[in-house]
Amino acid sequence: MRINQKELLVKLAQADADNELLLNKISMDYDKDQIENTDGFVKFLNQSRDWAFDYIYTVQSGIYDFTQKVGPEIAYFDKYGDAVWTPLTDHMKKISEAYKDLEKLIPDDYSRAIEDYGKLDT
Known about the structure:
Blueprint: H1 5-80, H2 89-103, H3 110-120
């Protein structure tokens, strides 16, 4: 069972070449997975950001619409509500306080924020 030195060198060289090919393949697959995972993560972040902006816009516009519809009535109650007491007066005071807290959630520059939001889509 004598192995020729020449055959042994050829097999050793082939094994080394095979090993190098496998290492390169593994490295390429790993790099490809890393890129795909990174691209997927970046896509996820972008989608999350877009969803967050949509949600903020929807909430702020809903609050703004509510303040435009109910604001005059709340202002009227705040000015004249104590003049005539009714069973609803105490409830209206609570509603007025909650309304003012809700109104604080609208940015002072709401119209500019809406314009900026529109620019994000382009």
